[in-house]
Design brief:
Helix content of chain A: 40-55%
Number of domains of chain A: 2
Strand content of chain A: 15-25%
CATH superfamily of the largest domain in chain A: Aldehyde Dehydrogenase, Chain A, domain 1
Largest interface: A-B, 65 and 65 residues
Radius of gyration of chain A: 24 Å
Number of helices of chain A: 15
Oligomer: homodimer
Structural class of chain A: alpha/beta
CATH class of the largest domain in chain A: Alpha Beta
Shape of chain A: globular
């Protein structure tokens, strides 16, 4: 029933994307500035729309955590505007010729960075994604089709109206920023199959949403975010450093994808390390769930089940496992990890090398907290998500990851013989 | 019914891929040499298996074109072996650190090239794909699961036995090269959803096969090959050059994806160009199908229908359309093209710039034949296909496109505050 409506959106986005590919960096930056300004100027209208969503959320009995994600405040609107302004300073990836060479027959062949075209974003409750995604897509020269969650519908609509109008007034083609104005699941499913209009889909949200997109989409998907991250403490680790990193990785912000979910400890380090680690973690309110060998050292620890090795708690809960050696740690990580972020704490040069080489993940750390897997922390600027797949982009995805390339070839009449 | 069998293949491939990621370039090159040698030594066994397929193909009434694709000869086996040997000289992409930098907090962050892991290849009749794909995947450090067409089953099985045994004897982990030993469609469909074991799927074959994979796969797909390519002759083109390129693009090898399928001609060039182009093309046996304006100049030309603009003939047939200007040519290409290869013939600097910028395709040429879109012709070495999608790889996909990256981070106890 939404087919016609969605195809119209897709067609507008496609047309806008062809124009947008040729828009200058200056115009894009002016638009980002105008969008930021407009968000601040239309603050009351956006807050009023958000209040409608909050009211409905409370009536529906949404959890406090969900309500908090949904909530907009003057501060949060200012942060969204600041996020747009931060994009202005980042280099425009479009147009960079990454390589150019000449063939023996005189053909000159170059590889130039171009926008992906039309990006579809399917996301959940947080309305700030609307602004972040629109800003990043715009700076990289892409049209965007946003499909947010039903809880944030009024907020997303108000925000999109404001930023889309501001962008158009600043010279961005109409249709470059559009919201799908229905939150029915059928509309999302149709969107996932719009290969004619959408070049790439990026789901942002929990594991359920991401899996639904991966399972249903025929449009290529950039999978983001689920992080069942491990920290492995080797027998030769500096245990003070290990404790500091473990506490940071678990508790500095437990609800995010780069937080640690399982702690692995070498059997020779377990007797000395587990009691001090447990004390420090419990002081921060962390519940531990251990394997049988962990519970020999920490008898008051809850037992862990097979399910715990697979769980991304996003909460103050930590699974703990004692392993016989590096090999067992790597096997555990490659079996249960989600290829996001993995950490070893060690003083052994060779063990660090082996871990870096053999662990299959977007980011592999030696002696630092998993919490650093983040576009800003890596020094890459704003990110649209953290890719846990291997195609196209792996790890934090910024402006460059929102582009493709094309070959441009300059000839003088060459033919193939 | 094939679930258990396929999962066993997947698991073996995954395990092999973890080991293969750490195998040295020398061992991989030795294996390629051994595979080539073994192909030549076991030639009679392979030819006998091929004869079984040929016999069945004739009994089934396969077309001569299909039978020719299926046929193996001593020469073709030598070419397959030479293809493997050519890979030895290419640089190993695995392990290249493409960038490394240090953050203000002292974290050293590097991006290193790693294999994709397990690659699934789903392909049709030509048994040489078995060797090409296995060789490329191996050199880039990937395990491969091959699923060929039913017509070539015996040939593919014989080839896989030979090269897989040779690779294992040369030190490659067992399971790195496997063939799915059933050609039932159900098996292919299961394979397309084996996200736990297969990192990337590459379909190789006709538009039907590729669309089936794009529509059904939940594993990320690298889409290859369909080429509805255009050559556009501007009003200011050198018409002799245009004729030479047009004839080459259409007739040098009409059955391949980078051959021209539609000729676009500026209305001011049509009266002078179409008669000479038609004469040269018809001399090579090409059938023309023109729009109404083409037929004003070439009254004996068959009329083209809407379907002709969308058709990849892969044959000595050419659609011809007269357009009013560059704008109309670009619109036609972006509407009907398959984002493969597009060519402009012009002497106008500004028109060349506009065409290069606004045409959305993997390769955009000025004044050269479309037939150059090819890994070897670009100087990139052997290719596994030509990507027409925008994620990960665009254009000819060689060894580098069969890799991913991971971030490696060296710390000294850094935590996030």
């Amino acid at each position: 029933m939404y087919q016609t409506e969605l195809e119209a959106i897709g067609q507008r986005a496609k047309e806008a994307s062809y124009k947008l590919a040729g828009v200058s960096t200056k115009t894009k930056n002016d638009a980002l500035q105008a969008m930021a300004k407009s968000l601040e100027e239309r603050r009351e209208m956006i807050l009023a729309a958000n209040e409608v969503d909050m009211e409905a959320g409370r009536a529906k009995g949404l959890s406090n955590a969900l309500l908090d994600r949904l909530l907009l405040t003057p501060d949060r609107i200012r942060e969204m505007a600041e996020g747009l302004r931060a994009l202005i300073a980042l280099p425009d990836p479009v147009g960079e010729v990454t390589r150019m060479w000449t063939r023996p027959n005189g053909l000159q062949i170059g590889k130039i960075r171009v926008p992906l075209g039309v990006i579809g974003i399917i996301y959940e409750a947080r309305p700030n994604v609307t602004v972040d995604a629109a800003g990043l897509c715009l700076k990289a020269g892409n049209a965007v089709i946003l499909r947010g969650g039903s809880e944030a519908f009024n907020s997303n609509r108000a925000i999109t109206q404001v930023i889309s109008a501001a962008a158009t007034n600043a010279g961005i083609p109409a249709g470059a920023i559009q919201l799908v104005e229905t939150t029915d699941r059928e509309a999302a499913n149709l969107m996932m199959k719009m290969n004619a209009y959408i070049d790439v889909l990026i789901p942002r949200g929990g594991a359920g949403l991401i899996q639904a997109v991966v399972q249903n989409a025929t449009v290529p998907v950039l999978e983001t975010g689920v992080g069942n991250c491990h920290v492995y403490v080797e027998e030769d680790a500096d245990l003070k450093m290990a404790r500091r990193i473990v506490v940071n990785a678990k508790t500095q912000r437990p609800g995010v994808c780069n937080a640690m979910e399982t702690l692995l400890v070498h059997e020779n380090a377990a007797p000395a390390f587990l009691p001090v680690a447990a004390e420090a973690l419990r002081a921060k309110g962390v519940e531990l769930r251990g394997c049988s060998r962990t519970r020999e050292v920490l008898p008051d620890c809850k037992p862990a089940t097979e399910g715990d090795w697979r769980t991304e708690y996003l909460d103050l809960i930590l699974a703990v496992k004692v392993v016989g050696d590096l090999e067992e740690a790597i096997d555990h990580i490659n079996t249960y990890g989600t290829k996001h972020t993995e950490v070893i704490i060690t003083n052994s040069y060779q063990k660090a090398r082996l871990f870096l080489q053999r662990v299959d993940a977007a980011a592999v750390f030696v002696n630092a907290s998993s919490r650093f897997t983040d576009g800003h922390q890596f020094g890459l600027g704003a990110e649209i998500g953290i890719s846990t797949q291997k195609l196209h982009a792996r790890g934090p995805m910024g402006l460059e990851e929102l582009t493709s390339t094309k070959y441009i070839i300059f000839g003088d009449g060459q033919i193939r013989t």
